[in-house]
Design brief:
The complex is a heterotrimer of chains A (191), B (343) and C (678). With 191 residues, chain A is mostly helical. Chain A has a domain of 117 residues: Cytochrome c-like domain (Cytochrome Bc1 Complex, Chain D, domain 2). Chain A has five helices and two strands. Chain A has a two-stranded parallel ribbon with strand order 1-2. Chain B is α+β, with helices and mostly antiparallel strands and 343 residues long. Chain B folds into two domains: 183 residues, Immunoglobulin-like; 89 residues, Immunoglobulin-like, CATH 2.60.40. Chain B is 40% helix and 17% strand. The longest helix of chain B is centred in the N-terminal third of the chain and has 37 residues. The termini of chain B are far apart. By secondary structure, chain C is mostly helical. Chain C has a two-stranded antiparallel ribbon. In chain C, α3 packs parallel to α5, α5 packs parallel to α18 and α8 crosses α14. The radius of gyration of chain C is 26 Å and the shape is globular. In chain C, 63% of the residues are buried. Classes of the chains: A mainly alpha (191), B alpha+beta (343), C mainly alpha (678). Chains in contact: A-B, A-C, B-C.
Chain lengths: 191, 343, 678
Amino acid sequence: MFKKTSGRRQCFAALRVCVKIFIPCLLLFVACKREQRQFTQPPSTFKSYDVTMSDIHPGSPGLPQPVQNPSDQRAFDTNEGKRLFTQYNCSGCHFNGGGGIGPPLMDEKWIYGENPENIYSTIVEGRPNGMPSFRYKIPDNQVRELVAYVRSMSGQLRKDVAPTRNDDMNAHRSEERTKRETPQRSGPPPQ
Amino acid sequence: MIDMRNTTLKMCTLAFVLCCSSCGGIHNALNPSGPQAHNLSRLWWLMFIVCSAVFVIVMIAVFLSLRNRTGDSQATPQIEPPREQERKRSNVVVTAVTITVVILFVFLIASFSAGRSMTAGLEHKNGLTVEITGHQWWWEVRYPDASANNIFTTANEIHIPIGVPVTFSLKGGDVIHSFWVPNLAGKKDLIPGKINTMWLQADKPGVYRGQCAEYCGLQHARMALWIVAEPQEQFNAWRQSQTGTSIPPSSDSQKRGQQVFLTSTCVMCHAINGTPAGSNIGPNLTHVASRNMIAAATLVNTREHLAQWIRDSQTFKPGNKMPQNNLSDADLNSLVDYLQSLK
Amino acid sequence: MSQKEAQNEEPRNEGRPRAPLVERIDVDREELADVMKREKEELERTWARPTGIIGWFIDTDHKAIAKRYIITAFIFFVFGGIEAALMRIQLMRPDNHFLTPDQYNQIFTVHGTTMMFLFAVPIMTAMGIYLVPLMIGARDVAFPRLNLYGYFVYLIGGILLYTGFVLNTGPDAGWFAYVPLSGPGFSPGKRVDIWAQMITFTELSGLAGAVVVIGTAFKMRAPGMSLNRLPLFVWAQVVTSFMIIFAMPSVMLASGFLASDRLIDTHFFNPAEGGDAILYQHLFWFFGHPEVYIIFIPALGFISPIIVTFARRKIFGYVPLVLSLISTAFIGFGLWVHHMFATPIPQMGQSLFTAASMMIAIPSGVQIFCWIATLWGSKLNIKTPLLFVLGFFAIFIIGGLTGVMLASVPLDLQIHDTFFVVAHLHYVLIGGSVFPLFGAFYYWFPKWTGRMLSESAGRLNFWLMFIGFNLVFFPMHQLGLNGMPRRVYTYLPETGWGTLNLVASIGAFILASGVLVFIINVFWARAAGAVAGDNPWAADSLEWATTSPPPNYNFHNLPVVQGRYPIWQATADAPVVRGLSTTSRETLVTSVLDAQPELCFDIPGPSIWPFLLSLATAVMFVAGIFTPWAILTGAILGGIVLTCWFFGDPNYKNKTARETGKRSQPVRPAPELRPKEV
């Protein structure tokens, strides 16, 4: 296929082939977290985190380290969180994030904290005034997916990981296009 | 130099032998067990025989045109062949094209009449209707009825009486699936936002396997279903048993199993009529022990399979929506005891 | 010595009287030889290709671009083949664990996407880009820089897809990506977005190639090549290009709507908010069905010249063959619903498409009968190109007949979305396109490189591919009837599908070895193949009237065509075109119907703008996967680049033209030499 041309031209042609084949292969080692899908999970412990709402600690050596939620970086997990939010009937109290019986989840006010470990505890332990405890009912990995989704409702997640529109009726803008709210600790909602 | 004729003969024989190897079975379009599948099978054989004949004739023509292989590639080309020769060839080509058109018309008419016979029965008013909703990756089966007491929902296994046309109302639940039981009828898609209707009838009692035929995601390969065709009395008995609530647990182990069910992840997705569990995300388990298969007709419904499936469905069907459950051995045993009592 | 422009004599059956335009010039032989030598040197200088690394980015020579297309497409073909081999290993036995379901789904999607978008269409376009100017006696294509842009856009699109694939972001919703599975709710992440944008790249590239081919074939033919003398290869390329222009916009709509549903919350395909999932299928298959004819029709164009050359006679039924090509293209646009027979579209409407799908067998039948009539009774010398054409007959006819079966609505409802369709589509695409393509490689390789491919390796190549192919795909007919659906990563042992799958997997490796033999043959022939002369096959069309490989300017003197088989029908005193400038890239523009000369025109030379525009396009579409603002940014960038392109100097590298101050304006022939309007 190659003309009998100068050695330089043939070199360059060979280089092109290499670029086409090898560089994508090298990138193989740079895993893309967004697209990770993990189906087999370690056994659920149903333990919630040691979280506090205040910076005052009696005699302890330091603040607990913030917990990273791996689902925050995986688009598959946030999408699953969205599915579970509807299917486990979180909408029954939180409606589509706007709140009603329960507090809204898409605004900037967080009664029990906006960090992943706070939300995780909320779901697993339950909270006063009506939030049930889902310990033993929802496995750990699904709780993490729900945590990621709840955070996406106020725009806390990266745009390429947050879910987009529902394949159903849409009650609000998709989480991907939601403006990022600055979380504030607030007291309990008015009765 | 490979002898083309000999090779072709050997290959045709191999093809024939391979084709004859599987012409029966419970998941086979060429083993019709209902009027629709019979029609389609007849149409198939008509087209197959005619098309094979056409292929053989055309290939003979090709081989005959290769008779003389002593040509010189640099020979003087013939730009103006003799008119008489060209006229004769013209006639042959025109005849061949005419025969092609006639054959295509025959196929067209055969196809239309087979098609009409398939949609002709859609207005069965008193026939049985079954509603199927496709989910990722299982089939929700609902038997509607005029009397609300007799409506029930099951999953992945459909019973129908023999000799009676059954109308299927197909709804898409999440993505597009396709309902296909080859022994009985062709397939129809389940498309979200639309309702598709088809009917089929089984003439012989037996079990007919079907599988989802539209790519629907990770576990499209493990989304099968069973149609069990049985005599009318047996069907009525089955239907009667399905409409009732679940059988209450009798032994201690079963009672414990029911408690495990109601306090674990199970209750978030599965319903068992007669208990507080009422979620319709996953298959209805009210009469799960009456089914022959689990996991969308891909695992036989035995104690070991059930236990494995509950503990770790992700190894067998990775990506399916049922999470793993690391119950203790005692809990798992009781749970399986309970589920196996739900006939 | 004065030189007058020589015009062509009137074509046959024209009917309209024209003034005789051929002039005989009597010239001294020695003087002529000197003039020719000087002109040749000037032509070499004027048409010299740029060298070096920058040269690769700015070279607009159609032969260079076509060779790049062919090599790139062939590399993608090999990638697609590797993906197919992985699939066959996974399906070799029931309940195999060689691939996880996620990997398998990505692999079959990327296999289909690669083969359809990154291999089949570009390689057919490439064959046209290389051979159409040579066959019609032109110096270059009509739009060389657009041609180069098309190549870069294609390359970027392919690299985008494969980068995604190795980063675990390969699309996994099938090469057709039906909604709602490929929609935002069920395909999270950017996998399907990468697919949708890759589509946009490859469709842009296809459209660019189509425009180039149509412009070249209609306006740059050598004098005397009226439409009824156009080679069947060029007819096939023109028909394909028109199909591309009408079909591609539909898939750009489909993928564009999908991308916007996924990125900016539109509801084109959301039934709950007024959209429709079937709309996607209509839009996709309105493109998808013509797409397979876009892949198939150029292959028909390969077969005709090969048969004519080896049968050593004129083609039987030139007019029916041309009309068959055109009617296949027309009818091909009316078939798309046969991919949707299982949807709730009313029976009456579906039956219309049964009739159309059966009807399209008629032009294909006409072509096959005409070719057999051409071969009949001839003294043949069966070389590898003809062997591949015979393989086409055997395989494509089976594929066409199973296609007629699939055209029937009721029967399709049994075999739709099963391995029967997989068998059918591979029989028509591999048998109908890849086999003629390999035949074309063996036929035209001497012209491209000046060397002949090995004949014995060619035979080995053919038989391995033929036997391997039939072993893989023939059992799939039976598998489909036995109930095996498509796109399944595994199956249960109880289904009994294991034996035939094992046979198919073994055949896959035989087929792969055939392709390997071809690759080895190519490398061997480059180094040690027999030197081919100008016309090793003693063929009839104009590309064989110049050296192998052709010089950059294709022909020293553009020929004047005297018949449908120019070399065979050339008389001893065949006229040539004289008077075109040798110090600028001047070419002759002729009329559409009769190829009467109209203008002398300067073709643009090498330019950096196509590459820069492709980068702007890449920014627009790749960033468009992540944010809609990329469309705006990319459009602004593209606008700037296009402005520089159109108002820049087309004679950038053409030093001679700049030195002489010759401007790039069309020059009309003197009034007395223009054909009289009647």
